[in-house]
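Example record used in the benchmark description.
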Amino acid sequence: MTENYEKLLNPDSGKANVVAMDHGMASMVFDEFKNPGKTLEQVLAGEPDAVLISPMLVRRFASLFEKHPTVRKIATLDALTLPELSGPLPVFDIDAALDSGADAIKSLLIFGQADRRDYLDNVSYVAALAELAQQRGVPFMVEAVLWGPEITTEKRNDPELINKACRVAFELGADVIKTEYTGDAASFSDIAASYPIPIMVLGGSKTGLADLFKRVKESMGAGARGVVIGRNVFQQERPDKLVKALNDIVHRDVTVEAALKTAG
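Model output (C-alpha cells):
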C-alpha cells in the first residue's frame, strides 16, 4: 500500500526539499518576498520537491506551477495569531485548498499555549483535518512546534518536548511532521527513528549559509527525511541557487563546501 507521505517525497531518494512560502498569511511580508509571483518564479526555477504556500497563491500563480509539474503544492490552511501565538486560526478548509490545485495540506500544532482551551481546540482541529485528508487520500503535514508563550526560548529545541509534540502529531494522524531540529544529532536521531512517517526540519530565521548547510546535513544524517526552509531561501539574492544547493545536500549528501559553491 502506498502511504500518503510518499506523494511528497522524491521517488529516487525518498526525501524532500520543501520551500516554505506561506509567511504572508501571518502578516510576515519581507522585502525579498514583496512580489510573490516574482519570488515564487525564482524558487521554482531551482526545482524543489514542494513548496508550502497559501491556497490563494496556488490559484493565482497556477501558470507558474504548470511550468514545473514535478513541484508539489502543500497548502497551509491556518495562520498564526501574532504576537501572542494563541492560535492557530483556521482560515481555509481542505476542499478549498484542493480546488485551488493543492496536492497536500499543512496545519500547525502549537505547544505551550497560555490557555489550555486554545490547545485543545488546536488538537481537535488537527485531528479533524487528518481524518478528512485520509478520506481524500491527501498528504497531511503537521507543523508541531514549541512556540507557545509558556515555553521559554531556551526550551524550543528541547528534545523531550519536541518528541512529545511529534508524538501528539503522529497520534492525531499526521503523514509528515515538520518540527525544530534539536541541535544534537543523537537526540534527533532517537526521535526520527521512533516514527514510521517522515520527520522534516524547519528552517527558522535567516542565518549564514555555512551554518544553514551544516545544520541541514547534520539533521539529514540524523534521520530527517527532508527540510522545510523559507527565509533562508527566498531572502537570498538567488533563491534558485539555494534550492539547488539544498537539493544536493538532501538528495545527494554532498559536502557543505560543495553546497556553498552551488549557492555561490
